[in-house]
Amino acid sequence: MSLVEELAGIVGTGHVLTAADEQQPYVTDWLGKYRGSALAVVRPGSTQEVCAVLAACDRAGAVVVPQGGHTSLSGGGTPDGSGKAVVLSLTRMNRIREIDPVGNTITVDAGCVLARVQEAARQAGRLFPLSLGAEGSCTIGGNLAANAGGVAVLRYGTMRELTLGLEVVLPDGRLWDGLKALRKDNSGYALRDLFIGSEGTLGVITGAVLKLFPEPRAKATAFVAVPTLEAALGLLSMVRERCGDRLTAFEFMTDVCLDLVMRHIADARGPFSTMPAAAVLVELSDTDGEAALGERLEGTLVDAVGAGLAQDAVVAQDGTQARAFWRLREGISEALVRAGKAAKHDISVPVAQMAAFVREAEAAVEESAPGARPVVFGHLGDGNLHYNVLRPEAASEEAFAAAVPTLTRRVHELVVRYRGSISAEHGIGQLRVGEMPGCKTPLELELMGALKTLFDPQWRFNPGKLLPPGLAVRPPLQ
Amino acid sequence: MSLVEELAGIVGTGHVLTAADEQQPYVTDWLGKYRGSALAVVRPGSTQEVCAVLAACDRAGAVVVPQGGHTSLSGGGTPDGSGKAVVLSLTRMNRIREIDPVGNTITVDAGCVLARVQEAARQAGRLFPLSLGAEGSCTIGGNLAANAGGVAVLRYGTMRELTLGLEVVLPDGRLWDGLKALRKDNSGYALRDLFIGSEGTLGVITGAVLKLFPEPRAKATAFVAVPTLEAALGLLSMVRERCGDRLTAFEFMTDVCLDLVMRHIADARGPFSTMPAAAVLVELSDTDGEAALGERLEGTLVDAVGAGLAQDAVVAQDGTQARAFWRLREGISEALVRAGKAAKHDISVPVAQMAAFVREAEAAVEESAPGARPVVFGHLGDGNLHYNVLRPEAASEEAFAAAVPTLTRRVHELVVRYRGSISAEHGIGQLRVGEMPGCKTPLELELMGALKTLFDPQWRFNPGKLLPPGLAVRPPLQ
């Protein structure tokens, strides 16, 4: 019996896709950047089926590419072009297993779409705070594999901090039941944290217990004009000092970003009569007291203007206006796509050094591609910038494409010098795997390689992602 | 040259202790429960010295027992009695390396005492929230090795969630520089989290970057009489709903605890005229607005009384009264010591199931040691109970001591049945290592053993702690 037949016997013939047209959405990433092929796309319906599928793949020595909503920005879930991989799509496993409003936890299948988990929490009067652009398509399993971030990390943390327990199937098909709903458990090594952020290279996450929070009933949102990134950092300190944990989002964008949004997004409207050098979207939330929250935000911003940290600020008068502010922020990615090819970087540096980093990066960009325009925005409170660079208007697409590798190398060398990360929240995937030797120490790569070999001795799981292939030959430590 | 001479050459003769009287505080745990001996106690003064010491121990094949403030409640830092171990005391490494009030981070040597880190943060107008009984003696390295919890976990998380970066010396003496001050970094496996909570069995933590928070300038503290644990859980939900992230502590204690404190702690005074069945200490904090905070707490508690979740409540009128409330909570451990030998358990279960657990545990205790008195207190919001059991008044110390192993087994079997943890915050150490096979799955033990072998192939680091010795022979997976 062939592996495909065996897999069909486990999940049913209808859930093993071998035809090219059926496979297409599973083997091409959504940016259209990576196109692969697969022996089969397998869609198990339960954890037990995942165990059986992985045991069969283990016996056959087959490569396995775990996949959730397939929304990775770094090709993390797309197979290579060899046509040998089994793509394991978790999307049929989409049950909310349990909501516990007393313990403030939700237990879900890994294939649940993030927005559905948010909605299930809301219906129970709770908040699941992870929030990001792809929330309508990405799945919890993918969020875990990539340790997703998004716009609420400042207050609630990344996916790692939002997770209590995991259920994972190992490469040999054995089940690790770590699905515990405990806030505290100091009884051994942090297996959970090893799987979170491992990008499907150590096994397949099939379920998770996640934290819930009280649903905030009050929000206050402001759009603030700031003269510089330094001033924005000063504003961040001031808002934090005055508003504490109420601060939920602090999103920075430069005039170049706003200008792009105005030009490319039909319904975008800026709140200021003149374009500021940069702007920040500030959002506070609280259990209750919307009026008091608005006053607190307004008072803080008045003082920030007085201190020269801001030039102008508009506090949203209603939900419609707040959504319009968010549209300015969220429209940037879309506007960037329409504005043409950009070199993209998802970097983090220590918060206090962001302004110095941006200044140095600008010089490096100008040297690598004269006239190229940095489009800088991101989650300032997390030290995370989406550092994009648009083609110089005078340069051809080809000339810019030729300059991008050097430009990216220069930006990332700077990130390493600032003790930052070349992947703050998007993951390494295929996109950055070649850069790992430049940004990790040899010891870190050795440890990662040894851990990989421990869980997946044949390196069959999601090959070509996260771990540079050269590591594969490394023996365990010593 | 002997190992001791070699070590003296690295750290200086004065920092290698070989005389029994000098070694005494390093080889006897502070509860006086574990008494060991050592080849030498070595006190390095820098990370470089730690590297050299561990390289020398590696060449000599010597056992190494890393040690911080030596305040473990589970014998986690005490060597065995063989006299062969090198105890590596980090307490000379006590520099605050850097405070960054913009990035809200503090970088410290692992040997810094927790209270000193709290104080350094305070002086910079910031809060380092970890807070626990031993804070005047325990060190950051020990807090990391044990993933310390304490009274502020509800709001700020355990040590794991308070840590950004680590500096670790591996068993072979190589340095892993993971000392990054990044809020987001998705570029590889979570080495940091593997070391946190590993109880010195994978290497030696020498430095850390920790998170700081805005210092709360307003506090409100109340002592609340509740009829049952169920009611306390209802009160927890209500306070959370109404006060959100302002809720900093929610400490539960039964009448037996309060009665012990009144009898054994000289300055303890309860706020109620009649002893309630149980009580909760609730603390809120906020950036500012103490009056509003007090009113919010009072309003919530009035409604809680109305809903039958509380019978009476006193909101502290000033800092003195708040400290008196805390004295009631913090006096319990001391009162327990004075009341005689108790069987101690540091357990966690899912928050919503705490009441059911306590009921079942009470029955198991009564069966194992009729007349024994459960002394139950803990961090209710974390699902963490310090489940102590006092000797029955009618039983001799010997008879009770004989009954304790069965009693503990019964309590812990129940914990496992509730999918809880037999060590919520104290760590496994020597105290619970024999119980690991009963509370972890064979697969978990296999993975832990394989991880241990990967980092420490000869199992030389902190032997006899955390990992049951039987695992030592296990090969890596497959």
Description of the molecule:
The structure is a homodimer of 478-residue chains. With 478 residues, chain A is α+β, with helices and mostly antiparallel strands. Chain A has 5 domains: 3-89, Uridine Diphospho-n-acetylenolpyruvylglucosamine Reductase, domain 2 (2-Layer Sandwich), CATH 3.30.43; 96-214, Uridine Diphospho-n-acetylenolpyruvylglucosamine Reductase, domain 3; 218-338, Alpha-Beta Plaits (2-Layer Sandwich), CATH 3.30.70; 340-417, Alpha-Beta Plaits (2-Layer Sandwich), CATH 3.30.70; 433-467. Chain A has helices at 3-11, 20-27, 47-60, 114-123, 140-145, 153-156, 191-195, 229-243, 255-264, 290-306, 319-339, 354-368, 397-417, 436-439, 442-455, and strands spanning 16-17, 40-42, 64-67, 86-89, 96-100, 105-109, 126-127, 163-169, 175-178, 204-211, 213-214, 218-226, 247-254, 278-286, 312-315, 342-343, 346-348, 373-379, 384-390. In chain A, strands 12, 13, 14, 15, 16, 17, 18 and 19 form an 8-stranded antiparallel β-sheet that branches. A 5-stranded antiparallel β-sheet of chain A has the order 5-6-10-8-9. In chain A, strand 8 (163-169) and strand 9 (175-178) form a beta hairpin. The first copy, chain A, is globular. The two termini of chain A are 41 Å apart. The model of chain A has no long low-confidence stretch (mean pLDDT 95). At the A-B interface, strand 9, helix 7, helix 8 and helix 15 of A face strand 9, helix 7, helix 8 and helix 15 of B.
